[in-house]
């Protein structure tokens, strides 16, 4: 394994909220979180405060509801009585001494639910705990060591070149960055590297390098087995300190650094925490594989480490080749403005993780189902959430009138082609489909009408549409670039809800958390199953800072 220096030897980062002994305060309002299946579970759409016995955690999933904003002293923002009412105001003489380093500030404006549910045990002062948490954030550091290139072990795959399909070429030219969080015990780095070398023998694309020396002159992969870069890191905090892993600059310290100078198509970082926990940070280039294919690779790696037999992936990308001659029969406006280049990053963008729990999702679905504007009475969780977020984001952006806006939806085509592709297919099988309207209609029309727009955009992606799209792209093959060149008025919903990401483990327990790091793309919405709430959904959203503030006023109201 050839040594390779990673980009930067020392990086300091902030931690997130503590996790051990966590209890939860719940009340009316909104909460932050993730995506999931059909509604099922605890009360939805409420403000949630993660707290720890002996030490309160960050207000990790709390959301501001303007009508509930109150001024309270630090020690009054808690209760042990079920159904107890939060005080609307407390006289300063009742206030406790100010926490250290608070500048004598005893009162603080916070988002207080109008009703705080029962919480077992004694809960420390939340504001004081937040001061302690911020101090840990300032102290916690992540140290990166040197990287090594892991090459595939000997295998039966003797291919020399992979010609990328049209769908590979229109994928964003970016690294998808994901963190996988494991509590102790965890396998040794040597076990992980040994298993990685074995699984790379079946997935040699990751160990190759891009080339344009292909028969058609388009981008391909030279299967030269140069290797995957693995960096080992060390964090001087615990996994509990880092929870709940909101998308942030801290998470970028847990994934390998990438730039335009990086040659590797797959990079990993193994970061060991003081508690024995492990975070595996993954940076995988999107031209090589989509989310489903990358998850297939990760699950195969876990099986190899566990000593299990894996099914070989299907590498035949000609299964998605264009017809000869190409015969597009649909107007694929999603691909009409494709250009070369990288995704632009706006320094004014911010990213947050919103949580919709099961009851809130149920209320959204009931609102859609109760609409009398069309005959359809059922919509998927994805369709309902995307319709709701599209409406809320359009409001938050202050759009109105005849401004055009669209939801650019990535649709997995594996089961939509005839015959369907094997689930072991390795590559990109994502098709872009858009729901379009004008801002005034998205804001003012009922939610079921917007959900119908989303539904129709998804269901139109069938076998004939898919082959038409491939043929359409074939006619523009020499100019293919990233498909989604979106306006600042659009949203880009992406679903991770059906990915078997929790199946990835090494035989010592499933991951505590799996999620994106920091992906700054205006209008991006990533939906995935909530790790903290059965039936709940976490929604990662990227918007401008001003629009994000407005979004939080709308998104937790049905």
Structure in a nutshell:
The protein is of the alpha+beta class and 558 residues long. The protein folds into two domains: 1-15 and 140-558, Chloramphenicol acetyltransferase-like domain (Chloramphenicol Acetyltransferase); 22-138, no CATH class. The protein has twelve helices and 26 strands.
In words, what does this structure look like?
It is a single chain. Helix content is 22%, strand content 24%. It is of the alpha+beta class and 558 residues long. It has two domains: 1-15 and 140-558, Chloramphenicol Acetyltransferase (2-Layer Sandwich); 22-138, no CATH class. The strands form eight sheets. Strands 1, 2, 12, 14, 17, 18, 19 and 24 form an eight-stranded mixed sheet that branches. Strands 20-26-25-23 form a four-stranded mixed sheet. Helix 7 packs across helix 8 and helix 8 crosses helix 10. The model is unreliable at 1-127 and 340-344 (pLDDT under 50).
């Amino acid at each position: 394994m050839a040594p390779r220096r990673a980009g930067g030897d020392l990086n300091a980062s902030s931690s997130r909220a503590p996790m051990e002994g966590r209890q939860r305060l719940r009340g009316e309002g909104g909460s932050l979180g993730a995506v999931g299946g059909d509604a099922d579970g605890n009360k939805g759409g409420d403000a949630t405060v993660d707290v720890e016995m002996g030490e309160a955690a960050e207000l990790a999933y709390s959301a501001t509801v303007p009508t509930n904003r109150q001024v309270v002293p630090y020690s009054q923002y808690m209760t042990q009585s079920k159904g107890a009412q939060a005080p609307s105001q407390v006289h300063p003489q009742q206030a406790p001494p100010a926490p250290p380093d608070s500048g004598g500030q005893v009162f603080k404006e916070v988002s207080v639910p109008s009703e705080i549910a029962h919480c077992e045990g004694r809960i420390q002062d939340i504001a004081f705990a937040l001061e302690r948490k911020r101090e840990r954030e300032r102290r916690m550091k992540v140290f990166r060591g040197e990287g090594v290139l892991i090459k595939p072990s000997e295998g039966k795959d003797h291919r020399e070149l992979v010609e990328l399909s049209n769908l590979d070429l229109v994928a964003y030219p970016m690294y998808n960055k994901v963190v996988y969080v494991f509590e102790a015990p965890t396998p040794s780095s040597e076990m992980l590297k040994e298993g990685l070398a074995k699984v790379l023998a079946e997935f040699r694309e990751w160990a190759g390098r891009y080339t344009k020396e292909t028969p058609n002159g388009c981008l391909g992969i030279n299967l030269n087995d140069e290797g995957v870069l693995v960096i080992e890191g060390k964090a001087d905090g615990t996994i509990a300190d880092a929870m709940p892993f909101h998308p942030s600059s801290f998470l970028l310290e847990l994934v390998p650094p990438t730039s335009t100078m990086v040659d590797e198509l797959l990079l990993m970082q193994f970061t060991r925490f003081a508690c024995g926990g492990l975070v595996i940070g993954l940076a995988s280039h999107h031209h090589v594989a989509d989310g489903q294919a990358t998850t297939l690779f990760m699950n195969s790696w876990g099986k190899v480490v566990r000593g299990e037999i894996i099914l070989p992936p299907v590498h035949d990308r000609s299964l998605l080749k264009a017809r000869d001659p190409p015969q597009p029969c649909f107007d694929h406006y999603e691909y009409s403005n494709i250009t070369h280049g990288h995704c632009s990053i706006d320094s004014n963008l911010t990213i947050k993780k919103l949580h919709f729990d099961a009851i809130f999702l149920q209320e959204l679905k009931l609102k859609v189902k109760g609409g009398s504007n069309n005959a359809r009475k059922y919509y998927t969780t994805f369709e309902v959430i995307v319709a709701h977020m599209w409406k809320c984001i359009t409001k938050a952006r202050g759009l109105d009138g005849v401004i055009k806006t669209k939801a650019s939806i990535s649709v997995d085509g594996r089961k939509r082609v005839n015959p369907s592709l094997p689930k072991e297919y390795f590559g990109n099988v994502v098709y872009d489909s858009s729901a379009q309207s004008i801002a005034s209609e998205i804001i003012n029309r009922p939610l079921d009408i917007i959900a119908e727009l989303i539904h129709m955009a998804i269901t139109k992606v069938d076998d004939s549409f898919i082959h038409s799209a491939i043929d359409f792209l074939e006619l523009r093959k020499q100019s293919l670039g990233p498909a989604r060149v979106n306006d600042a008025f659009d949203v880009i919903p992406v679903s991770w809800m059906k990915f078997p990401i929790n199946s990835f483990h090494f035989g010592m327990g499933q991951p505590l958390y799996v999620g994106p790091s920091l992906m700054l793309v205006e209008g991006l919405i990533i939906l995935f199953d909530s790790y903290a709430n059965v039936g709940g959904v976490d929604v990662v959203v990227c918007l401008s800072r001003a629009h994000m503030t407005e979004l939080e006023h709308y998104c937790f109201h049905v």
